[in-house]
Amino acid sequence: MKRLSYETLREQGYDGFLLQDAPERFLQFGEGNFLRAFADYFVDVMNEKCGFASKVVIVQPTGRNMRPHDSLNKQEGLYTLLSRGKAGGRKVEEARVISSVSRCLNPVSEYDSYMACALNPALRFIISNTTEAGIRYDPACLFTDRPASSFPGKLTQFLYARYREFGQERGKGLVLLPCELIEDNGKALKESILQYVVQWELEEGFVKWLEEENLFCSTLVDRIVTGYPKGELSALQERFGYEDDL
Predict the structure, then answer these.
(1) Which helix (H) or strand (E) holds 239?
(2) In the chain, N or C terminus with fewer CB closer than 10 Å?
(3) Predicted TM-score of the model (pTM)
């Protein structure tokens, strides 16, 4: 049985929505089930219904656990989402191949490729889910780390690189949508970044750019995402006609 790919779907005559090429307008910290069945699903639907024409490049928050990274890239960013529930009092199930993800990057082994995303003029949004412990200031992080170990440290390095490239242009800041389950997560993320600005003695112009050109949103998520359906794997592969590690 072939692995899920654009070619496999073409061979099957798949008639669902697919978007193979589009600008990478989203950077996403977190490759887990939740964001892939939540934010990336929303982007996929916007691509179909609204002509949003956007791709998500996923960054692993840490350099560990290469399985999702490898599987996403082998499958060209594609994966199958099963939505199950009730509508009108009846059980419903929808299967959708999500094509909003372009690739997955490891920020340690692919540091230069990761930081190059900061120089992408089309980039507009940053989404994250690095667990409740992810948004924390760690004074052990250095500006010269490749990359900083904490998520806010990585993000400070990334935003500073974008500021150095586009700081003199209006409209090149980013909308940040943290999904970590802490109160006022956008405010907490911004405060951690500003601590690194002080520790690393970054210039006042960067602070002004952060304040005027970037929007730190606080969010509350409203979706339950279950785990990998191991017990149904054989039946699902037989049903869809392809292998899908994700």
Answers:
(1) helix 233-240
(2) N
(3) 0.95
